[in-house]
Predict the structure.
Amino acid sequence: MIVKGNLKVGGALYQFEADEKEDLLAILKVVGIVNIRQECNICNKGTPEDFQFYAYKKSSDKGEFIFVKVRCTCGAVSSLGQYKSGGYYWKDFEEFKSKGGKENQTKSTDDF
Ligand SMILES: [Zn+2]
């Protein structure tokens, strides 16, 4: 069974498709991705129209990890989580906190 889903984020339309022998498995994959939070729980103003979709890959000692997120105009970020048993879900928005004095690094770069 092929299941297709559309997700509109920040004015762009993303299409997701899963092709699985088991019908429920195809539904499980797509429904979790397209069921994005309809409102930012931090500012209570942001809607998917205001969100920015982005993804990146990070390497560490434990391997390579891909992160899929949406950012609200208030700066809060919601991440796509993955159940160990399969399927996806969107986490609550969290306020963005820079780690390791990233802000200071940016400032010193600006000084050059
Ligand atoms: Zn927000």
In short: The two ends are 56 Å apart (CA to CA).
